[in-house]
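Task: encode each sequence below as structure tokens.

Item 1
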Amino acid sequence: MRTGALVSAAAVGLALLAGCGSTPEPAAGHPTGAGDPQAVPAAAVPGGRLSSGPFTLLPTAPQGYEGVAGTAEMARHDGGTTVTVTFTGLRPDTDYVSHVHSGQCAEGGGPHFRIDPAGSEMPPNEIHLKFRSDASGAATATAENPTVVGADARAVVVHPADLMDNRVACAPLS
């Protein structure tokens, strides 16, 4: 009977460890926190001060993105900042990265917004959203950051993950 209890305890421990390892590894260069499928969308964050805008195509967009549409939403709240992007018209089954930028969309979004301008180009000093479009070219992603960002977070830009120099679309956060 004691052996059965030990085996049961070991099985429970292994099950817990297996559960801990089931989180997928982030893509190279994009740590966990660059997008969370379980996160509450920005528009639904309790007490959030919402900024949002529609995505418009940028002149740097590669061919084949003429039908891209969507919105970016940013909620500033007591727990930090939450950003949600929603798209249609992307290339199907393709990996993308969106970043919060500090410029205006008329300027292609300008540089990446950094919480500490002298700090890292990676989260948590920047807000990144990595995601994959579905078979119809639609996608939604949400990322959270523990810092309440200021007014210098002006836009969200989307890039294909494999063509980071090709900015596809920009949404102003007004």
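Item 2
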Amino acid sequence: MDFSKLMDYVKQEEHIMALYLVGSHDTPYQTPLSDIDFAIISEQKLEFEKQAQILGRFVDLLGTDNVDVIFLPGSGLPIQHKVISSGRLLYSRDETFLADFIECTIKSYGDFEIFLNRFYQDYDAGMRREFGHD
């Protein structure tokens, strides 16, 4: 898929500091049913109306409503970490800002990951106990 019109818009939209392509699009896991997932990094959490406006422009410019946009910040730390660790950077307005965002996310996630993994272990154990699959 051609992202050139989208990229022209992204460069003009001052709220978008960085844009990542995430999910299965343009990977061996893409299927005809796959949507196109993007993650947007902004300086601050955007108001719902602004998020809707940006999503609408993405849909118009890509010519499909099979588009999802995750707005960072405003999403959970595990999602932010997943985006920066496995997403494909398409655009960065300010390399220093992006580097600071990545550094902060990695440091915070490193502290948080221990508790998250423990939560997952406890959750899995509880599900096995509840449904008899010990």
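Check on item 2: DSSP finds four helices and four strands in the chain. The chain has one domain: 3-132.
End of task.
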